[in-house]
Write a structure and sequence with these properties.
Elements: H1 2-10, H2 36-57, H3 62-69, E1 86-87, E2 92-93, E3 101-110, E4 117-127, H4 134-153, E5 159-160, E6 163-164, E7 182-188, H5 205-208, H6 210-220, H7 232-238
């Protein structure tokens, strides 16, 4: 995704851009790598770097410029939007310049004999500003949504004497392709002016919506569920039938 931003801004093929591993021996420690922050903040800095590089190239290709003048470095630092005011001491103000939005709708079936829940179809809509790399964005949404379904239906942490006793994949159940329903992924784009090409990022959103959607669907079916995962034992104990 970062390479795509640089390639598009410079007007060079995607394959012409190499992405190096982060090394704090070369750049200052800018904090954690946390999902949307990478696309919106780092992506915007790279877009600004590429814009300056394009101007300095003066119409030459990067290869031709390097042959004639040698390499050069462009460095940019994140610039907080001027309308965003945040007090780190009092925690008053706007901590974030923009927000992404998402909505999940899930259709599911409950086996009246085994009390097992099977999601049949899931529609997930994400407003992410701009999809820099649509295929990667859809893949991230699908993966996070599947993980969210696991949280909602399967992943039950069992603690005993202060330790997790089901700490292997033989007894801690995660969703597989057989547990994942057909997904209809919809990306809505309302560009954010301070993000690269308008991007806000996808980040954590895909995992947030599936569990509330599952719980609401089960409540609609008559199950007064108050905790997840919605295991057969929990559904049997809270059924209104």
């Amino acid at each position: 995704m970062l390479a795509q931003i640089v390639a598009d801004t410079l007007g060079v093929p995607y394959e012409a851009v190499d992405v190096n591993a982060a090394d704090t021996d070369q750049v200052p420690d800018s904090g954690p790598t946390v999902a949307s922050r990478t696309c919106m903040v780092v992506g915007r800095m790279l877009e600004r770097c590429a814009l300056e590089m394009r101007e300095r190239l003066g119409g030459l290709s990067p290869r031709d410029y390097w042959r004639k003048h040698g390499p050069f470095v462009v460095t940019k630092q994140y610039e907080k939007p001027p309308e965003i005011v945040w007090d780190e001491t009092t925690y008053v103000g706007d901590a974030y310049g923009s927000y992404g939005w998402a909505c999940d709708v899930v259709e599911l079936e409950v086996d009246p004999q085994t009390w097992e829940v099977r999601p049949v179809k899931l529609t997930t809509v994400h407003e992410i500003g701009k999809a820099i790399h649509p295929m990667l964005a859809i893949g991230q949404i699908e993966g996070g949504t599947a993980q969210g379904l696991g949280w909602a239906l399967l992943e039950d942490v069992v603690m005993r004497d202060g330790r997790m006793v089901n700490n292997t994949f033989t007894n801690y159940i995660v969703p597989t392709t057989l547990d994942t329903p057909a997904m209809d992924v919809v990306i809505v784009e309302h560009p954010y002016k301070h993000g690269p090409y308008g991007a806000k990022g996808v980040g954590e959103m895909p995992i947030d919506g599936p569990a509330p959607a599952v719980v609401n669907a089960l409540r609609h079916a008559g199950f007064d569920l108050r905790e997840i995962p919605a295991t057969p034992e929990k559904l049997m104990s809270c059924s209104s039938r």
